[in-house]
Amino acid sequence: MSHTLSQGVEFTGIGLHSGEISTISVHPSRKEGIYFSTGSGLFPITSAQVHEDSRLTGFRLPDGTTVRTAEHLLAALSGLEIDSVVIELSGEEVPILDGSPHPFAIAIAEAGIIEYGEQRKKALAVPIVIDDPYKERSMMAIPSERLMVTYVIDYPGTPIGTQRASYTVTPDVFLQRISKARTFGLTSELDYLKKNGLAKGGSLENALMFDEKGLLNEGGLRFPLECVTHKINDLLGDLALLGTIPTAHYIGICAGHDLHGRLVDRIKRVL
């Protein structure tokens, strides 16, 4: 079955990278697919042209409208199996809220989810591997009867260290665990971010921050594998650009938005 909302939801907050306030609304729709509403009309998410690197996701719609940092909202829609909505955004960047998809997911769940139409799930038929051997990173998708994600991160010499997490993604698992994982960073990266005009809206209220000694956030982690689980949120959000995420086992090894994007491009060519 396809899934949409019983009623619309709205979010207002600061953009992580722009530092500007924006508002985004998500409306129910019986038109299959995730659509963005602009002054020029409705555009399916599958029409977006992605411009991203390992730190920032952004895409441009056919009318030239730019959307930045949408992966947490898109992860919430994907994780809750919402595949029919219309999204309206004021400004270019989706609000960061608390740095995780959880506020989006909670509001969507509370608004109510309804089923309609026919089954839309797709299954990946062949394995796909994206390899970056020079940086020892990879991203792959293996045929599976269930939607699964396994992710490994490695930050040697930092308190984050090496982490691995694996989940079978269902709406309940996403809402109760995966969605709660917040974005994270290292104080050693702040100079790079500032020089590139990024993280202007970042704070300890919307990101986990580590220095060489440990975590700076007073409240601590929400759960032990929060950092690597957040990478799974990023992946689910980036895979949403496919329109419907094919059933598969997705495996990321020290990957990021750029490899996620390359995987999306490859999957589009084989579906």
Question: Which features would summarize this protein structure in a list?
Answer:
alpha+beta, single chain, 271 residues, Ribosomal Protein S5, domain 2, 6 helices
Please report the distance between the alpha carbons of the first and last residues.
Answer: 20 Å
Measured by DSSP, the beta-strand proportion falls in: 25-35%
- CATH domain topology of the domain at 2-120: Ribosomal Protein S5, domain 2
From the alpha-carbon coordinates, what is the Rg to the nearest angstrom? 18 Å
Number of strands: 17
> How would you name the CATH homologous superfamily of the domain at 2-120?
lpxc deacetylase, domain 1
**Do you know the CATH architecture of the domain at 2-120?**
2-Layer Sandwich
Output the strand order for the largest sheet: 2-3-9-4-5
SSE pattern = EEEEEEEEHEHEEEEEHEHEHEH
The CATH class of the domain at 2-120 turns out to be: Alpha Beta
- Major sheet: size, sense and barrel closure? 5 strands, mixed
Shape: globular
Residue runs with pLDDT of under 50 for 5 or more positions: none
Q: Assembly state here?
A: single chain
Secondary structural class: alpha+beta
Q: Residue-averaged pLDDT, rounded?
A: 93
Put simply, the count of helices is 6
Please specify the SSE layout and strand pairing.
Elements: E1 2-5, E2 9-14, E3 21-28, E4 33-38, E5 41-44, E6 49-52, E7 57-60, E8 66-68, H1 71-79, E9 84-90, H2 102-111, E10 113-116, E11 128-132, E12 137-143, E13 148-155, E14 161-168, H3 171-176, E15 184-186, H4 190-195, E16 208-210, H5 226-239, E17 248-253, H6 257-270
Parallel strand pairs: 4-9, 13-17, 15-16
Antiparallel strand pairs: 1-10, 2-3, 3-9, 4-5, 6-7, 7-8, 11-12, 12-17, 13-14
Helix pairs in contact: 1-2, 1-5, 5-6
